[in-house]
């Protein structure tokens, strides 16, 4: 499973790089093709769960983390953006037949590739985007009750909106909002405490709010 996950992630990143390099090789435009942004982001899950056998729901904590993104511009308006961040979330099953269950924490690595359209013409440059997301789960701490917790790698979709405010020809400020549509299958081994292994279909669907600074190269 881990080998397959790594292969998918590498293919995802290589596809982005090959797309940008191919366009760069065929385009003689001397304008700025690359943009880099560093944001501080708030990741707020809009979570729900269908928990087998014991019922209940899920509560996933909000996270505050840095985010790096890399954009390649095909022309003045159209670009692709690769978004990179990782976040740690506390997880709890709530309102189950066994009460509230602390499921420890998990790290999410959700590289996201979006296509964007930028509304140019002034120093204020709004944009809209949509794309795909691959989320890897790692660094799982199962908490004090479960013997083990596993999360399936998830492929989802992303919507995005925001704006850049140009400070000069090179530097700019950025405000960005994303919505990820993200679902995973969680397997909780609680045989010691509950005498059973419990599966759950979990919708994470986070809102991501970011503010930062960027540079054109």
From TrEMBL:
GO terms for biological process: transmembrane transport. SUPFAM superfamilies: OMPA-like. InterPro entries: OMP/PagP_B-barrel (IPR011250), OMPW (IPR005618). GO terms for cellular component: outer membrane. The keyword Hydrolase does not apply. The keyword Signal applies. Keywords: Signal. Residues 1-22 form the signal peptide. PANTHER family: OUTER MEMBRANE PROTEIN W (PTHR36920:SF1), PTHR36920. This is Outer membrane beta-barrel protein.
């Amino acid at each position: 499973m881990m080998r397959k996950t790594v292969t998918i992630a590498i293919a995802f990143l290589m596809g982005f790089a090959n797309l940008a390099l191919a366009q760069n090789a065929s385009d003689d435009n001397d304008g700025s093709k690359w943009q880099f942004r560093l944001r501080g982001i708030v990741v707020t899950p809009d979570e729900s769960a269908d928990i087998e056998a014991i019922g209940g729901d899920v509560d996933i904590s909000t996270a505050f983390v840095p985010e790096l993104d890399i954009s390649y511009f095909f022309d003045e308006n159209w670009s692709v953006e690769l978004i990179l961040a990782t976040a740690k979330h506390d997880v709890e099953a709530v309102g189950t037949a066994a009460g509230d269950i602390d499921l420890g924490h998990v790290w999410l690595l959700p590289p996201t590739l979006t296509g964007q359209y930028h509304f140019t013409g002034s120093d204020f440059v709004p944009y809209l985007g949509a794309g795909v997301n691959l989320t890897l789960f790692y660094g799982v701490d199962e908490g004090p009750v479960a013997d083990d917790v596993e999360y399936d790698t998830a492929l989802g979709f992303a919507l995005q909106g925001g704006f850049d405010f140009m400070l000069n020809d090179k530097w700019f400020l950025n405000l960005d909002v994303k919505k990820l549509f993200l679902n995973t299958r969680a397997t909780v081994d609680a045989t010691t405490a509950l005498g059973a292994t419990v599966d759950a279909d979990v919708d994470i669907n986070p809102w991501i709010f970011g503010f930062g600074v960027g540079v054109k190269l």
